[in-house]
Specification:
This protein is α+β, with helices and mostly antiparallel strands. The protein folds into two domains: 59 residues, S-adenosyl-L-methionine-dependent methyltransferases (Single Sheet); 297 residues, Outer membrane efflux proteins (OEP). Helix content is 67%, strand content 11%. A four-stranded antiparallel sheet has the order 1-2-3-4. Helix 3 runs antiparallel to helix 4. The longest helix is centred in the middle third of the chain and has 66 residues. One of its GO terms (molecular function) is efflux transmembrane transporter activity. InterPro entries: MdtP/NodT-like.
C-alpha cells in the first residue's frame, strides 16, 4: 500500500471512529429522567406535546380530571399536562440536547477554490482547512457537553417541581376564597333576617332608633365584606386558571366547598439530610461544578495553544511560452502543499484563560456551599412554619370557634330575654366573624406551609406561602359569619 493510500485510509478510519462516538438524539428528547423524577417525587405524569396525537391524549386526560370537583392532586396533574410554560421548558431541554449532539460532532472542514486567469496564464487553487485543535479536544468537549445536558435535564425537573408547588399553593388560596365567600353569604342572610325583624320592631316602637342604626350599619358592613370576598374569589380562581392553562369550556371546572381536613402531623427526623440528598437545585449546582471541573482540566491542558489549523492546498498552473522556433507551447504544473497554523498566546502564555476558568470554578463551588447551608436552614424553617400553622389551625378548630359559638348563642338568648341590648349581640357576632375568617385563613396557610415544607425537601427555591394567620385575623373586617 502506498504512503498516500495509507494516509487516506488512516483519515477515513479516524473519521469513522469519531463519528461512531458522536452523541445521538434520544427518542423522547431527554425527558425520561424528568419523568422519573416527577413520578418519584410527585406521583404525577409529565408529557411533551410534540404532535397532534399527544395533544389529543393530554386533552382527553385533562377533560376527565375536570369533570369532578378538583382536588389538589388533580389540579397538579392538570397543570403538568396543560401548562404551556412547562411545555416551553421541555422545548428548552430539546434545544440543550441539540447543542449536546452538535458539540459531539467533529469540526466541519472549510473548502475553498480560486481561479486566476490572464491572457497567457491560468491558475486554479483548491484548498481544504480544518481545526486540529478542535479535533483533538473533541472527546473532552463532548463529555463536558453531555454533563451540561444532564444539568439541563435537572433544570427541567426543577421547573416541573416548581409548577407543581405553585399550583398547590394557588389551589388552596382559591378554595379558601370560595369558603370565605360562602361564609359571608350565610352571614349576610342571617343579618338580613335580623335587620328585617328590627325594622318591624322599630315601626311598632319595640326597638329604639340607635339599636336599629347599629344593626343596619352591621348589615352594610357585611354587604361590603361580601363584595370584597367575591372579588377575592374571582381573582384567586383566575390565578389558578393561569397555573392550569385552561380556557374556553374548561373554565367551568368546579372547586370543593371546603378545605381538606388537617392531616396527621409529620415528624422532623433527618430533614436536613433529606434536603441535601434530594433537592434539585443542589443537584444542579453539583452538576455545574463537575462540568466546570472538566472544563478547567481542558483549559489547563490547552493553555499554551489557542488553536491549530491544518490547511491543505492543491494548485494547478497553466501558461503559454514561445520556444526557440517561435512556436507557442503550453505548460502545466500541479503542486500540493500542507500548512499548519498554530496560534500561541505569547503575551500571557494562556494565564488569563486559566485564571478565568479557576475563578469560575471557585465561584460555582462557593455557590454550591451556600446552597448546602441554605438548604439546611430552609428545611428547618419550612418545618417550623408547617408545625406552627398546624398547631394554630387546630387551636382555632378545637377551641376558638366552639367558644365563639357558645358566646354568640348565649348572647342571643340574653337578648331574647331582654337581659342585654343589640349592641352586645352585634359585638359578639362581629367577633365570631373575625374568628371564622381567621380560622379559614389559618387552614389555608397550613396547607400552603405543608406545600412549602414538601418543596423545601425536593425542589428548593423560595417558599410561596401566603399571609400569616395573625395578619389575616387583623384584616377580619373583611370576614363573615353568622
Amino acid at each position: 500500500m502506498s504512503t498516500r493510500r495509507a494516509f487516506r485510509f488512516g483519515l477515513l478510519a479516524g473519521a469513522a471512529i469519531l463519528l461512531g462516538g458522536c452523541a445521538s438524539f434520544s427518542p423522547d428528547g431527554g425527558l425520561s429522567s424528568v419523568q422519573a423524577i416527577s413520578y418519584s417525587e410527585l406521583g404525577k405524569d409529565v408529557v411533551k406535546i410534540g404532535d397532534d396525537q399527544a395533544a389529543l391524549t393530554a386533552k382527553a386526560r385533562v377533560d376527565q380530571l375536570l369533570r369532578k370537583p378538583l382536588t389538589a392532586d388533580a389540579a397538579v396533574q392538570v397543570a403538568l399536562l396543560n401548562n404551556r410554560g412547562l411545555q416551553a421548558a421541555f422545548n428548552e431541554l430539546g434545544i440543550a440536547e441539540a447543542q449536546m449532539v452538535a458539540a459531539s460532532l467533529p469540526p466541519n472542514p472549510t473548502f475553498g477554490i480560486s481561479k486566476l486567469s490572464g491572457r497567457f496564464e491560468l491558475e486554479i487553487e483548491r484548498q481544504i482547512a480544518g481545526s486540529l485543535f478542535a479535533l483533538v479536544t473533541l472527546p473532552a468537549r463532548a463529555e463536558i457537553a453531555g454533563d451540561r445536558f444532564r444539568a439541563a435535564q435537572l433544570r427541567t425537573a426543577e421547573a416541573v417541581l416548581k409548577l407543581a408547588a405553585d399550583t398547590r399553593r394557588q389551589y388552596y388560596r382559591a378554595v379558601a376564597a370560595n369558603v370565605q365567600a360562602g361564609f359571608f353569604q350565610q352571614a349576610k342572610a342571617s343579618s338580613d333576617a335580623a335587620s328585617e325583624l328590627l325594622k318591624r320592631l322599630g315601626e311598632s316602637g319595640g326597638v329604639n332608633k340607635i339599636d336599629q342604626a347599629r344593626e343596619f350599619a352591621f348589615e352594610a358592613e357585611l354587604t361590603v365584606q361580601l363584595a370584597q370576598a367575591r372579588q377575592q374569589q374571582r381573582q384567586e380562581r383566575e390565578r389558578l386558571v393561569r397555573q392550569l392553562g385552561l380556557w374556553g369550556d374548561e373554565l367551568k371546572f368546579r372547586l370543593p366547598e371546603t378545605l381538606p381536613a388537617l392531616p396527621r402531623l409529620q415528624s422532623a427526623k433527618a430533614i436536613e439530610a433529606e434536603a441535601l440528598r434530594k433537592r434539585i437545585d443542589i443537584q444542579i449546582a453539583r452538576a455545574d461544578l463537575d462540568a466546570l471541573a472538566k472544563s478547567l482540566g481542558l483549559t489547563q491542558a490547552t493553555r499554551f495553544v489557542n488553536d491549530v489549523d491544518l490547511l491543505g492546498r492543491r494548485t494547478y498552473d497553466r501558461g503559454r511560452v514561445i520556444n526557440d522556433h517561435g512556436h507557442v507551447e503550453r505548460e502545466a504544473s500541479r503542486s500540493r502543499t500542507l500548512e499548519l497554523e498554530i496560534e500561541i498566546p505569547i503575551y500571557d502564555f494562556g494565564q488569563s484563560k486559566v485564571v478565568l476558568a479557576e475563578q469560575t470554578y471557585m465561584q460555582a463551588a462557593n455557590r454550591l456551599a451556600e446552597k448546602a447551608v441554605n438548604a439546611r436552614s430552609e428545611a428547618r424553617e419550612a418545618y417550623t412554619s408547617y408545625r406552627a400553622n398546624h398547631d394554630i389551625t387546630r387551636q382555632y378548630q378545637n377551641n376558638v370557634l366552639p367558644l365563639r359559638k357558645i358566646i354568640q348563642d348565649q348572647s342571643l338568648l340574653q337578648y331574647s330575654g331582654m337581659l342585654n341590648d343589640v349592641t352586645d349581640l352585634i359585638a359578639d357576632a362581629r367577633s365570631r366573624i373575625l374568628s371564622n375568617v381567621a380560622a379559614i385563613n389559618a387552614r389555608r396557610d397550613f396547607w400552603i406551609a405543608h406545600t412549602d415544607f414538601k418543596h423545601a425537601l425536593i425542589g428548593g427555591g423560595s417558599a410561596g406561602g401566603g399571609a400569616t394567620v395573625t395578619a389575616a385575623a387583623g384584616d377580619g373586617d373583611a370576614g363573615g359569619g353568622h
